UniProtKB/TrEMBL annotation:
SMART domains: Alpha-L-AF_C
UniProt protein name: non-reducing end alpha-L-arabinofuranosidase
Enzyme Commission number(s) of this protein: 3.2.1.55
Record organism: Aegilops tauschii subsp. strangulata
Domain of life: Eukaryota
One MF annotation (Gene Ontology) recorded for this entry: alpha-L-arabinofuranosidase activity
Keywords from the UniProt entry: Glycoprotein, Hydrolase, Signal
Single GO biological process annotation from the record: polysaccharide catabolic process
PANTHER family: ALPHA-L-ARABINOFURANOSIDASE 1
Length: 362
């Protein structure tokens, strides 16, 4: 959400020939963008990565302005047109624009988030209902994400998912591994669209920040019946224009490196679509451990593998046992691999000079 609607990201002005895009001013972070990386390119990036795009739409709100419900129709139409651009048949008005850009096949756009951190704004809920009705009328399969928390969602205020943002210290992030343990099941699931350790112990991407975020993600994995997905924030940063720390991937014009939290995410790369198994850590008088267990099928060899993740947030080595239920009777442990993310100091960071100072090693 920007400061003024006049500087909003308008998707239709970011498609078509690059030289014809007017660009816009990012009034939150204070720079001009030519929108060479526009709506089309973001959809391409998600497709190339095999990732799931989530479009956070311009719902007529900024920090200083908001469109009243009586005049929100143009913004609603703009979003529906944007979905047509992404998913419409090449014979449709906006689908033909996408096809002319070299992508006649529709993109897999299945998630729409209504604004960003706007639930408390005066017109948000009434405007939200108008967007919701219009999108569902044409695209009933699209999952719509509300900026409001779970307690506000009802048949009158419907939502498929609700958005959660978590920015906190490493110690508190570790404690939030149990954040969704008591969430009632059966209603809309959460999408944790922004999470990061911030503050003094985050630095520019420290090991302790990555470990705390790992604990949090293990908690989300264990509560995957209440949480649909999560994404770290931000993913990229240009080293010549740092506006936020930490970030997962740092780059400049000719080199790049992954921060510890980037390498930490490698431990979760098989989690999507895997089977979660209840697990219990058996250790006395120590509350600095979290763990999860999944089985996943390797598409390359067709075999099913067991993956156990254990995080020790404390300052000493621990002998422990883990009980896992729901497994097949025979498990081959021969050839098992242990992969570790650690370093000499909790405050260690990666850099262009030492890009792999902290990375996962087997």
């Amino acid at each position: 959400m920007g400061n003024y609607l006049s500087n909003a990201f308008r998707w239709s002005e970011t498609v078509g020939p690059w030289e014809e895009r007017p660009g816009h001013f990012n009034d939150v972070w204070g720079y001009w963008t030519d929108d060479g990386l526009g709506f089309f390119e973001f959809l391409q990036l998600a497709e190339d990565l095999g990732a799931c795009p989530v479009w956070v739409v311009n719902d007529g709100a900024s920090r200083n302005e908001q469109v009243p419900s009586a005049t929100i129709a143009a913004f609603v139409k703009d979003v529906v047109d944007g979905i047509e651009f992404a998913r419409g048949d090449p014979g449709t008005s906006w689908g033909s624009v996408r096809a002319a850009m070299g992508h006649p096949e529709p993109f897999q756009l299945n998630y729409i988030s209504m604004g960003n951190q706007e639930c408390s704004m005066h017109y948000y809920k009434e405007n939200y209902r108008k967007f919701y009705s219009a999108i569902k009328a044409s695209y009933p399969d699209i999952k719509i994400i509300s900026s409001c928390d779970r307690s506000t969602i009802s048949p009158v205020e419907p939502a498929d998912l609700y958005d959660v943002h978590v920015y906190t210290s490493s110690g508190d992030m570790f404690s939030k591994s149990s954040m969704f343990d008591s969430t009632p099941r059966g209603g809309p699931k959460a999408i944790v669209s922004e999470y990061a350790v911030t503050g003094n112990d985050a630095g520019r991407g420290t090991l302790v920040a990555a470990l705390a975020e790992a604990a949090f993600l293990i908690g989300l994995e264990r509560n995957s019946d209440a949480v649909e997905m999560a994404s770290c924030a931000p993913l990229f940063v240009n080293d010549n224009d740092r506006r936020w720390s930490p970030d997962a991937i740092v780059f400049n014009s000719w080199q790049h490196y992954g921060c510890p939290n980037y390498w930490m995410l490698h431990f979760f790369k098989e989690s999507s679509g895997a089977s979660l198994h209840p697990s219990t850590i058996q250790v006395s008088n120590y509350n600095q451990l979290v763990a999860s267990a999944i089985t996943w099928q390797n598409s390359k060899d067709g075999n099913t593998y067991l993956k156990i993740k254990v995080l020790n947030f404390g300052n000493k080595a621990i002998d422990l046992s883990i009980s896992i239920t729901g497994l097949e009777n025979e498990i081959q442990t021969f050839g098992s691999v242990k992969t570790v993310l650690t370093s000499g100091s909790l405050r260690d960071e990666n850099s262009f000079q030492q890009p792999d100072k902290i990375s996962s090693c087997s």
